Structure to design on (409 residues):
């Protein structure tokens, strides 16, 4: 009889745990015990979907029609509406067939990584950066190359970093960038993104640009101009290079996190592969959400989303105004998105690590923030990420409590 080994989880599934999960479990415990927890953890706007989208969803559900499977890359009406969004925000000519509707930006990332990379391909990401890039790439068998992006380059990569990496370890098949970025909120200047796109074109490297925080820009970067009455929304990689993959979502600007709807703009060589993969992986994105999301591209919905962005800006100002009193160390510029990423500075001498600081802050003052280790395994033990998506009142309350916590003997 051959000896059979017991079944086991795959090695590829061993992605590192999120520290934020420990904090969130503590948040639930404190809330169950009746404490008023101010949570600055989740990157999640609290206002819900714009009214026109919510009303359309109610109509769609009441009609109860067209809610079967849709085409794998989404309904034609929504693909057309997303294409129109690129004309409106960027003056770009995008065809509906360039657009793949996906289950959030998360779904777009998985499909793109699968379609663009083979096991063993080397794909560069920023550190600090959004953990799902490296964890998903690693689970798919890619070799993740973390580029140390510090304050000197506003936590964004440069062609010089890519040259050094290639010289030291060989070619890169992919580069993932984000602007505004999570957790730092830093924006890519148009010239910086252009230089990265040029570098990728010259080196046969696939550029993947996560533009999920476009539209949430508080300080336009150098060279980032308003156009045709639109404020600066971000620079899209498709303004520079149609071989890039652009990733975006309804989750952040429109506040539709749980609707699980996003999209990718696909270069022509990847479209058929993504179509086949999407059909196999998830059949299609959610049908009701797709029908309702068409309304996200109406003037009323844009106006409502822009009002939410104004609230984020107010919350951001509250935090920035509190920085002198907080006496933390280096703080990322937070030019976009709704995150403040900060080195805890002298607080570290008292608490040892940002995880310990976060835990004690939560116990003492019921304020929840995320330790930096999730975003940066090398230096994240010094840093915290505060999400200011929750609204100015909650952010003001959090500031009061954090100052009280830090003033304790
Ligand atoms: N990219 C970035 C940078 C994010 O911060 C997030 C969500 N936190 C996502 C992608 C995924 O968003 P979703 O799947 O909800 O569209």
């Amino acid at each position: 009889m051959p000896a059979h080994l017991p079944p086991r989880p795959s090695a590829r599934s061993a992605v590192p745990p999120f520290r934020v999960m420990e904090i969130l479990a503590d948040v639930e415990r404190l809330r169950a015990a009746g404490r008023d927890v101010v949570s600055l953890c989740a990157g999640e706007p609290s206002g819900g979907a714009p009214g026109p989208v919510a009303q359309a969803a109610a109509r769609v559900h009441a009609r109860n029609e067209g809610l079967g499977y849709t085409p794998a890359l989404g309904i034609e009406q929504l693909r057309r509406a997303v294409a129109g969004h690129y004309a409106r925000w960027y003056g770009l000519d995008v065809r509906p067939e360039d657009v793949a509707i996906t289950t959030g930006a998360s779904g777009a990332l998985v499909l793109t990584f699968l379609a663009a990379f083979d096991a063993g391909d080397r794909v560069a990401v920023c550190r600090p950066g959004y953990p799902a890039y490296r964890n998903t790439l690693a689970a798919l068998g890619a070799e993740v190359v973390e580029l140390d992006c510090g304050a000197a380059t506003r936590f964004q990569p440069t062609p010089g970093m890519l040259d050094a990496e290639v010289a030291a370890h060989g070619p890169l098949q992919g580069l993932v960038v984000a602007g505004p970025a999570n957790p730092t909120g830093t924006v890519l200047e148009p010239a910086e993104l252009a230089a990265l796109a040029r570098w990728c074109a010259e080196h046969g490297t696939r550029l993947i640009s996560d533009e999920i925080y476009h539209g949430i820009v508080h300080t336009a970067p150098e060279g980032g101009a308003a156009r045709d009455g639109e404020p600066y929304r971000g620079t899209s990689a498709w303004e520079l290079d149609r071989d890039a993959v652009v990733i975006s979502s309804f989750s952040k600007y429109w506040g539709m996190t749980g609707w699980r709807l996003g999209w990718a703009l696909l270069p022509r060589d990847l479209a058929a592969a993504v179509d086949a993969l999407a059909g196999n992986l998830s059949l299609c994105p959610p049908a009701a959400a797709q029908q309702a999301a068409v309304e996200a591209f109406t003037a009323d919905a844009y106006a409502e989303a822009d009002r939410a962005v104004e609230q984020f800006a107010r919350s951001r100002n509250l935090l920035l105004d509190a920085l002198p009193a907080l006496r933390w160390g280096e703080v990322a510029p937070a030019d976009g998105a709704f995150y403040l990423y900060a080195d805890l500075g002298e607080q570290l001498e008292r608490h040892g690590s940002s995880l310990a600081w976060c835990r004690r802050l939560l116990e003492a003052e019921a304020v929840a923030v995320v330790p930096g280790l999730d975003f940066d395994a090398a230096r994240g033990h010094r840093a915290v990420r505060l999400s200011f998506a929750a609204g100015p009142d909650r952010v003001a309350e959090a500031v009061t409590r954090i100052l009280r916590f830090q003033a304790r003997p």
About this structure: DSSP finds 13 helices and twelve strands in the chain. The chain has two domains: 11-48+301-407, 68-298.
